[in-house]
Amino acid sequence: MTALVVFFTISWFVVALYFVMDKKINILDGTFVYLITLIIAINFSWIVIEELKLITLTEKGQPYMAYIFKRSIITPTVALICLALVLRTRNTFFQVSSIILSVAFLTFTNYLLVPLNVATYNNWNIAYDVLYFIGIIGLSLMSYYLFHKITKNAVLTK
Hints:
two-stranded antiparallel ribbon, about 80% helix, globular
């Protein structure tokens, strides 16, 4: 029960933070980046957990729902928040700090899965989590810029 409450609360906090923050992302760009990040997160977790068996998840219902909140709500929404913060300014220090804090927050929430008995790391460690979340944030930034470029060119040609 504890894991579900913790991750449900974090999910609501992250979603509320995204909706109240001042952002330069329109709804179409945000939805595209969210869905791309969600697809990557689901597929990567399936490969790591089910195929390679590097992480073992609990089979109890409520702790597993905590993992679903982490994978399907927290990770894509934090990637969107990071994207909004990176787009907010041209200051490189602020952009890099936003990425580092986002990766640190996602790594911390992923690490919470272990003490709350949701996951067990078999052949996995925090360094892999950091690399994974850097990749997720990098792919969300690249997908935004690519989608934004394509839609901008489509609008200009009409």
